[in-house]
Design a protein that fits this description.
Number of helices: 6
Number of domains: 2
Organism: Medicago truncatula
Strand content: 35-45%
CATH topology of the largest domain: Neuraminidase
Helix content: 10-25%
Structural class: mainly beta
InterPro entries: F-box-assoc_dom_typ3, F-box-assoc_interact_dom, F-box-like_dom_sf, F-box_dom, SCF_F-box_component
Mean pLDDT: 85
Pfam families: F-box, FBA_3
CATH class of the largest domain: Mainly Beta
Protein name: F-box protein interaction domain protein
Distance between the termini: 78 Å
Shape: globular
């Protein structure tokens, strides 16, 4: 059998067909990446950029990463807002926050002064700024993770308000699920005709950059009665902002307390009664908050215990149940020193570890419900713990 020598193979001039990656596969892969990595993908192509900035992808990515919570820590000396992983706080390692210029609240503007964080929602932080001389107020909307910050928005002149009324301005921040936009709420407490106490309300929408008057607040928010503290802020939950309030001041009965819930979509109020187990006035104002998606109510009980209730079904008063009752002795707090505030900041996914702010100490309290272990955080920076907000890294935009 004759064997012919092998002939060299001819190269084909036809280029190989490109590999096709389905769009839904790209969507899925991108959604697994952390925010900073996703942002790098925007420069790959026009398609990548349009995908990453689409509301559907932003929402899906946020829901996937919502289980990696942070707290926005506010330093008192350098005026920085640093998003910090909760798990690192609970691990309680010795921490020193770096002086990253990006986290400075005052970014070189000479015509305004940072005042406070209004709120944090879906990865977007609302900052409150006053002009030099405190004649005007501005809002800034900031995503620390994508490093984007809006221009001065929500401008409001204070010249039309008497000087003594300006200290009774309080703001809140949340997301309107009905119109898919962010809104800020302004409460202004003042007196008309001598004794009539009125709380007027304005709502600012990021969609149109306008303030609008809505119906007056139906009670007196404790936030406006206790202007020296930052523990009575309106709390955001499920498209609503909620305040603890009273129907009269002075008040001497627990029956005067109520929770007022403002639906940001319909801009209407709902009133909710407090737990029936709350039957004795505490020595300091009680507070409300949100832990793991549940509305909570906490207060001092007979100067011996700290009690937390949670509403298992939002806006259903019958669903209140007592979640925690812990003695101050277990928390290693000398409660005989003076009146103090104790406010829950975060509850871990397994409901064992809790972070609490205390007005008696410069560090937050770490309490483990499972083994009754108590520690103090170990952060070398000076932190304003009552200004700390929940924060989740996201692709949320101010546009």
């Amino acid at each position: 059998m004759n064997l012919h020598p092998s002939q060299p193979q001819r190269r084909s001039n036809v280029s190989p067909s490109p590999k096709f990656i389905p769009n839904d596969l790209i969507f899925g892969v991108f959604s697994l990446l952390p925010v900073k990595s996703v942002m790098r993908m925007r420069c790959l192509s026009k398609f990548s950029n349009s995908l990453i900035t689409s509301p559907i992808f932003v929402k899906f990515h946020f829901q996937r990463f919502a289980r990696n919570p942070h707290l926005a820590l506010v330093t008192t000396k350098t005026k920085t807002v640093v998003p910090f992983p909760v798990r690192d706080l609970i691990d309680n390692r010795l921490i020193t926050l770096t002086n990253d210029p990006h986290y400075l609240t005052n970014d070189g503007s000479k015509d305004m002064v940072f005042h406070q964080i209004v709120g944090s929602c879906n990865g977007l932080i609302c900052l409150l700024n006053y002009s030099i001389g405190y004649e005007d107020v501005f809002l800034r909307f900031w995503n620390p993770c994508t490093r984007t910050k809006s221009e001065k928005l929500g401008y409001l002149s204070l010249l039309n308000y008497p000087i003594h009324e300006r200290r009774y301005f309080k703001f809140a921040f949340g997301y309107d699920n009905l119109t898919s936009t962010y809104k800020a709420v302004l409460l202004n407490f003042h007196t008309r005709t001598g004794t009539t106490k009125i709380t007027t309300v304005k709502v600012f929408s990021l969609a149109d950059n306008l303030w609008r008057n809505i119906e007056n607040f139906p009670a007196i928010p404790l936030q406006l009665l206790n202007v020296g503290q930052r523990v009575q802020n309106g709390v955001y939950l499920s498209g609503t902002v909620n305040w603890l309030a009273v129907f009269d001041n002075p008040f001497y009965s627990v029956d005067k307390y109520v929770i007022i819930s403002l639906d940001l979509g319909t801009e209407t109020y709902t009133q909710m009664r407090l737990p029936q187990g709350f039957d004795d006035l505490p020595r300091v104002y009680p507070t409300i908050g949100v832990l793991k998606g549940f509305l909570t109510f906490s207060y001092d009980f007979k100067q011996s215990h700290f009690v937390i209730w949670k509403m298992e079904e939002f806006r259903v008063e019958e669903s209140w149940c007592q979640f925690l009752k812990i003695s101050y002795e277990n928390l290693q707090i000398n409660y005989n020193i003076r009146q103090f505030y104790l406010v829950p900041l975060h509850l871990s996914e397994d409901s064992d570890a809790m972070i609490l702010a205390s007005s008696l100490e410069g560090q937050a309290i770490l309490y483990n419900k499972r083994n009754n272990k108590v520690e103090r955080t170990r952060i070398t920076n000076s932190i304003c713990w009552f200004s700390v907000k929940d924060y989740v890294e996201s692709l949320a935009s101010t546009c």
